[in-house]
Predict the structure.
Amino acid sequence: MPREQFQRGLRDVEDGVLEMGSMVDRQLDRAMQALIDRDLPLADAVIRDDGEVNRTRFHLDNMCVSLLAQQAPMASDLRLIVAVLAMVSDLERMGDHAEGIAQIVLLTRDEPLVKPLVDLPEMAIQARQMLRDALDAFVDRDVESAYLVGRADDSVDALYERVYRDLIAIMTTDGATIEPCTHLLWIAHNLERIADRATNIAERVVFTVTGMLPEMDVSRY
Amino acid sequence: MSDRVPTMQPHGEGLDLRPRTNGGDARSVTDKRLALRVDHISAWYGKKHAVGDVSLDIEANSVTALIGPSGCGKSTLIRTFNRMHEVATGARAEGHVYLEGEDIYAPGADPTLVRQRIGMVFQKPNPFPTMSIAENVAAGLRFMGIRSRSEIDGRVEHALKAAALWDEVKDDLKKPGMALSGGQQQRLCIARTIAVEPEVVLMDEPCSALDPVATLKVEDLMRTLAKDFTLVIVTHNMQQAARVSDHTAFMLAGDDGVGRLVEYAPTEEIFTNPKDERTEAYITGRFG
């Protein structure tokens, strides 16, 4: 196979995306654990480690730019690199959302819970599954699986709607709950955005394989 | 048009110059006006079958690139577009090439007039060695029978300007063409070709003997020239095809050694999302 160095570069970039995906998944897992356990040192660790996620993103950006500049990639190689540039941006933002959840954990400290944590952990489970499925679809170059990720976003959106309505109802009945309810709303919003970013990654998988850029709009399904 | 070239036979009544859809005889990539329709062209050198049954439509005022590995028949093919191929000993072509609807292979079509309307620039700059810069550009005009000094001077200046060479040579028009740098010589040859105002300019690897700076100058020139002419280029340099062309045709020789058209599409599509896996393999460098 000719262009071995280039092929190795492409493999390294792809491996880098998967590693970064695992980092973000772990950040999200720990942020939710910190929320559930009121574990402030863990929340601190999540905030600290976000820097590592950011550094990984810039490292992958640089690898892509080098390949573009030095190897003049074409066709599927070009699509892969362009897709990765977008994916690592989404992954970095997902990491920021995980950090955002950890920040809220620090902010709320021992604030009493206004409702049991049921829907938020469920949103996190589904969003993390979407991320993993999007990355699996990337590895397998599987367009159908990528589209399923877009469809899964509907379920996270529905959970977000429910959390939103519940919290608004609580706030309107008891003014003292407005602040803790707002904190939970922020967390729900972060989780909803994480799922959206996973959908973006799935869109880039479709682009990598087909060259088409579909918008996996909720209204499609 | 037929006034200018009376010896060329117009193709039958009502030739449809609108592009045909894929699956038709010609492979088409445009709904704009066509300059050339290449219709089932095959070419041989003696018994060696070099190009097999290529059909494609070439849009007017655009740049079309022919790419493919060595031996794929792209240089042979481009030489059939102005009947240069048959100049080689034992070489022959079959099929038709329509220039603005007229078959350049029609019986009675005059190859010299064809080559006036479809000019060619070669890989190695080839100014006429004994002639000055101005005489090089004027050579084709004199051949056409233009005698007026002032008309020749005006057209020489116009051609040198169009070839982006005027500013560099306007004070040295009497110096030998061979005294110029390689890149300037190639632009001089382009000026010589366009001085006779052809409709189509064929370029066979026009930059492969030039350094990178001269190459980029010629590439810029191609884009400018496409406003007034139709350009077809053969290039080994895929980046060049990507930079300068509007449409790209990828050719490949089969196991039988015959070069055929594999894929023909807008350049952006060929280089971002080719449809044929052989095109993909070639442009990503995964060949062989």
